[in-house]
Design a protein that fits this description.
The protein has 264 residues and is an alpha/beta fold. Helix content is 36%, strand content 14%. Strand 1 and strand 2 form a beta hairpin. GO terms for molecular function: hydrolase activity, acting on carbon-nitrogen (but not peptide) bonds.
Length: 264
């Protein structure tokens, strides 16, 4: 019998703690049933909530696509290396940034945009959305959007990853009404502990063991393991037939009408 493993994000800037999914404050920590069968993880009651408000956690078409996403709250010196790999391998990514990151690393944010990557909204001050008002959420998102526009050519942020991974039906609804698309993830592992890095093979094996068609992968650029493993991961996954796509590809494809076959 498969062991039920739930992932719950309680993040301070970009620091997640994985534990059983529970109600935290007025919200839920994002969680799913982890598996190593290279299959889409089961998210239970969250499925209907995400569908109602146009949110994503994976590409459910069954195609061998992968979507790389990074959460950036502060810098440890590895983001340039990661961007170098993405550029050399011609692979897109989405970087969910906070106000602190934009203020402290404007050149890196500009480089991300200049090299064709997407900046996602991780809020300005990284509060728990489930305990603040809709107006406060709006301010957090708009302030971050303005900050990114000041240092780069991206003047609109449409993808949102909630701080600490905490959400509920109300925060999904409010964000949807404000024009944002929630993006969670279907593959993650403990990669943020900068003083407990385990070598590039750890990151490589964690992703290869959990990878599945349509995976939205959550990584942190503060990890030296990730920086050292990324090129090897991309090369191996491409050998296995995976294609790396942007979140724009996922959302556009999902909004296209179903093909019509045959003749009337």
């Amino acid at each position: 019998m498969k062991k039920l493993i739930m992932l719950s994000m309680v993040v301070f800037l970009t620091f997640p703690l994985f534990q059983m999914s529970t109600v935290q404050a007025a919200g839920y920590g994002w969680g799913y049933k982890k598996n190593f069968n290279h299959e889409l993880p089961y998210i239970g009651k969250y499925e209907s909530m995400l569908e109602e408000y146009g949110a994503y956690y994976a590409d459910k078409t069954g195609q061998k696509n992968i979507y790389l996403t990074f959460d950036n709250g502060y810098e440890e010196g590895y983001t340039d290396d990661i961007l170098d790999v993405l550029k050399n391998k011609d692979v897109p990514a989405t970087f969910f940034v906070t106000g602190h990151y934009v203020e402290s690393e404007p050149d890196l944010v500009k480089r991300m945009v200049d090299e064709g990557h997407i900046i996602g909204n991780h809020s300005y001050h990284h509060p728990d959305f489930s305990i603040i008002t809709k107006g406060a959420i709006k301010e957090e998102l708009e302030d971050l959007e303005k900050a990114v526009a000041e240092v780069s050519d991206q003047d609109e942020l449409k993808y949102l990853r909630p701080p600490r991974g905490i959400f509920n039906e109300q925060t999904l609804k409010w964000s949807y009404e404000l024009g944002y698309i929630h993006v969670f993830w279907s593959l993650a592992f403990i990669d943020w502990e900068t003083n407990k890095q385990k070598g590039w093979e750890y990151a490589f094996n964690q992703i290869m063991d959990q990878v599945h068609p349509g995976a939205v992968v959550l990584l942190h650029t503060v990890s030296s393991d990730n920086a050292q493993a990324l090129e090897k991961l991309i090369t191996e996954l491409q050998k296995e037939g995976y294609s790396f796509k942007s979140l724009d590809d996922l959302v556009l494809k999902d909004k296209l009408p179903d093909p019509v076959y045959g003749y009337e």
